[in-house]
Amino acid sequence: MIDSPNNEEDDTCVPRAAVYKMIKDCTQHIRVSSEAKEFFVQCCNEFIHTLALQSNTVCEQQTKKLVHPDHIVTALDNLGFSSYKTNCLNAMETAQEELAQKRRKLHGKLTSIYTDEELRQQQELLFQQVDFILNINYLFYFEFI
Fold it and tell me: Would you state the pLDDT for residue 105?
């Protein structure tokens, strides 16, 4: 990894490609200069930094050690961005649903139509069947010896 003066700063920035894509999606009929795009990135980074600091302050005031979404919503209010609360809460709900779907898909956790007791009974039945087959094979083997 090459060390450059901007390298540390780049590690703590919003990905430029993501911001550029948002700009492109929002400004489909006009062009945006490189300087303006870079300014957008800087503004995004500054906003996130400010919101994170304010959220941390709210968290500390509530004597909590973990920032939760409600701390961020309160921070939005404190910073004068109350009008964005509804959009942010909707975005959070969508993100949580997508995360839950990804987790279910990643873990492959399918919900069973059987209760745990039914599954245990089925397992016991399978063990009995295997035991029966093994005993028959054992007897059959010794019958021909």
Answer: 78
pLDDT at 5 over 70: no
76 pLDDT higher than 60? yes
Q: Measuring CA to CA, which residue among 21, 13, 73, 75 is closest to residue 44?
A: 13
pTM, entire model: 0.61
CATH class held by domain 9-111:
mainly alpha
Q: What's the mean per-residue pLDDT of the chain? A: 85
Distance CA 87, CA 97 (A): 15
Q: Which two tokens stand for residue 64?
A: 């909590």
Instruction: Encode 110-134: b = buried (16+ Cβ within 10 Å), e = exposed.
Output: eeeeeeeeeeeeeeeeeeeeeeeee
Q: Would you state the torsion angle of the CA atoms of residues 9, 10, 15, 16, taken in this order, to the nearest 10 degrees? A: 90
Count of other CB atoms within 10 angstroms of residue 29? 4
Query: In this structure, which amino acid lies at residue 11?
Result: D
Domain residue ranges of the chain, discontinuous segments joined by +: 9-111, 112-145
Q: What angle do CA 93, 22, 102 make, to 5 degrees?
A: 40
Residue 34 · residue 54 · CB < 8 Å: no
Single-letter code of the amino acid located at 135 = N
